[in-house]
Amino acid sequence: MSWWEHPGARCVEAPPKACCLPIAGRSSGLPSGPAPALPVAGGGDLAMTVAIPGGTVTVGTDAPVFRADGEGPARRVTLRPFRIDVHAVSNRRFAAFVGATGYQTEAERYGWSYVFHSFLAPGVQAPSPEGTPWWRQVQGAYWAAPEGPGSSIADRLDHPATHIAWNDANAFAAWAGGRLPSEAEWEHAAKGGDDAARFPWGATEPDDGNALCNIWQGHFPTQNTLSDGFLGTAPVDAYRPNGHGLFNTCGNVWEWCADPFRIRSISAAAKQRNQAAAAERERVMKGGSYLCHISYCYRYRIAARSGRSPDTSAGHTGFRLAHDP
Predict the structure, then answer these.
(1) 21 lies in a domain?
(2) Residues in domain Sulfatase-modifying factor enzyme-like (predicted)?
(3) How many domains does the chain have?
(4) CATH no. for residue 311?
């Protein structure tokens, strides 16, 4: 049995396959044109936020699971006080933004986005990126039609907005008068007041019978037992909040951060990864998603991280805003 097939495994290198998206940016080989223009600030977005105290905090870990992701080593960072959204930005909030500005997301500009294979309507055929057959490039998939033409968010207005690229999240932030959090801010807020926390609720491992966050149950990518009641996203206020009152900082959807993605290592592999990340202008994503599971993509830990190009979107990418006090 390979380590990534063993439910109790702990690893130090990334598995050959994971639920995360392909590294190559969507724009590779495509004339994407300039990034969308930022809307005018002051959109009057109403969001529940909490104050997070400043101070010197720990970011990353000295016990990395995926070294290739740059989870470690742990480092100390001094932060100013800030505020952060209690919830990820919901479909309802994103719809208000689009209604006020007419903004078109990257998925709409490109004409497609990544959809998990189980969500395709019967008979729908869509190509898969090499190495990740569970992802399909679905024409017409975007935030308001998450599974492609014919799908709707009408019954998911309080679920997190998905198919959101970093460029889209940044545009929403400009309109709403906020900003994307830094990786350090995100981790500090996610820990809920415990600088040593592994998860927002502490150290207890979620599993198929103990649903502490919205992750996969069963055998990825073919069987989800739905023991937590959710096949895809959950409402933004599902599960118990952490010590700061934040919901779903781990699981549900990946959340974009402001930082460029880079690995703090002098190894040859890290140098190569950083060069590729710089070429794609990758940005940090945190928190994992409803597709994560300890047996293959143990990235719903607070220290876990990933990076993708700013025009990348999928059915498990979302965001929340930070705010200066």
Answers:
(1) no
(2) 48-322
(3) 1
(4) 3.90.1580.10
- Phi then psi for residue 274, to 5 deg, are -65, -35
Cis peptide before 221, with omega less than 30 degrees from 0?
A: yes
Q: Give a yes or no: residue 37 inside a domain.
A: no
